[in-house]
Design a protein that fits this description.
126 residues, mainly beta, 1 helix
Length: 126
């Protein structure tokens, strides 16, 4: 099983893109904070990709600094740059969720009747 759940904040606005064959997707980065040894703050940055309607949803409702929760799977990708093979990890997003923010700030959770988010199989997720 390869499932990853990440909750954090977007480090910048999501970017909407299209492949040469016309498939749409969005890329975005999530920073998650946790407390390490000696109460020091540690941050991990996660590269994410959401395809189709999920990517459109992320671009429409999330911006830099907004809390977000994603569920997906971790993918290892490779490419070549200047003769060297570069390996990087990316979260392929299966589900996107709104989150209640910290410091009493709340991100509104959508109602099913006004913000439907169709899954690739035609169902609805929030």
């Amino acid at each position: 099983m390869n499932t990853i759940i990440i909750e954090g904040r977007l480090t910048r606005d999501p970017e909407s893109k299209t492949t040469p064959n016309g498939s749409s997707y969005a890329t975005f980065y999530i920073a998650d904070d946790r407390i390490g040894k000696n109460n020091e703050k540690k941050t991990t940055f996660h590269s994410c990709i959401a395809w189709g309607k999920k990517g459109e949803f992320v671009c429409q409702y999330f911006t830099k600094g907004k809390p977000i929760n994603v569920i997906g799977n971790l993918q290892m990708n490779k490419y070549e740059k200047d003769g060297q093979e570069i390996t990087f990890y990316q979260v392929a997003v299966d589900q996107v969720n709104f989150v209640v923010g910290d410091s009493g700030q709340k991100t509104e959770k959508p109602q099913q009747n006004n913000l439907p988010f169709p899954d690739d199989d035609g169902g609805l997720s929030f």
